[in-house]
Amino acid sequence: MQEADYQLIIVGGGPAGLAAGLYAARDRLRVVLVEKGAVGGQVITTDWIDNYPGFPEGISGFDLIDKMAAQAARFGLETRNGNVVRMELEGQPKKLHLEDGTVLTAQSVLLATGARPRLLEVPGERELTGKGVSYCATCDGPFYRDLEIAVVGGGDTAIQEATHLTKFASRVHVIHRRDTLRATRVLQEKALANDKITFIWDTVVEGIEGETEVTGLQLRNTANGETRVLPVAGVFILIGTIPNNEVLPLDSLQADEYGFIPTDQEMRTALPGVLAAGDIRSKSVRQVVNAAGEGAVAAISAEDYLGGLE
Amino acid sequence: MASDKVKQLSDADFEATALKGDLPCLVDFWAPWCGPCKAIGPVIDELAAQYDGKAVIAKMNVDDNPATPGKYGIRAIPTLILFKGGQIVEQVTGAVGKTQLEAMLAKAL
Question: How many CB pairs (< 8 A) connect A and B?
């Protein structure tokens, strides 16, 4: 068999990648974690995480990731800043091409590339991003002190962040395309009881208005077809996620119709020696706790696979 | 640590350094409550060491310095603006990677 730089390369430094890195480094694999930005993933945009076991008072998304990274570092996990632009995942060794021209080789690869916020794809959205259009309530909420803003979405993230944003904004309009929320009960109850939150049901955003900054949203009621403009200074778009799959070989990984990667319960993809964990996986529950759990399973699966190569 | 090379800007010295300075200046508008801002901190430190003498790599805390972010209409952080000769060369919002920031800086050098 050809020599490889590493036994395992982990692509992505969110909870799944860091948990896998912790397990693999602790088990003394030759492992590297490659991250294109800073470690963290989507979790660092979360204000507060109340449902990760072991933190009875809750913990901020950034602090949780910081602790995960420190724990992996304690076992000597090598991390590398780099943007993977091409992957050769079939056969041995696997090759990852980085933007700076480096090629890393490994016997196994864990895809933990995660997901990112879904865009509304309406006029004005891209032009006004950072100028009133936001995807991170924790980051940008304090810019809207005593202003009226909107949150688009009806899931856990939208409803949790709508409640968080009432700390700053004078009013938060939650715009949802249905007449019921998908968010978990405890988050719903909190939001429905908050008198700074107004719900606008059965309504979609068709455009975002503003020249240099957001001034309003073009709304359409899907039940009766009525349209109107809602004046707001900002809009937080929290309508789910799309997979970070741009450099993955989707056909050979047999990606699902939404572009997420299916695995078996050991996190093995359709390609031998290639694993997937965290939000990039085809699954129904996307929480920090199962991302971390999947990372651990994937690292152990990688070890099993490496054992079979010898 | 390279962080001593990062210039900490305030509303008072922003103009002299970022707009009227001799070198291109990359300003990272950030705040302590922003996770992604903290996450890119190490990247900013590395850039400061790497571009020492060629460009000024600076940070401005938007909580302590409301005037400058207001002037540039900043409503999301981290926002990074690259200035040269008093003009904006490029502006980017979000926890972007080091290679993207290097590509940005290359346009001003």
Answer: 84
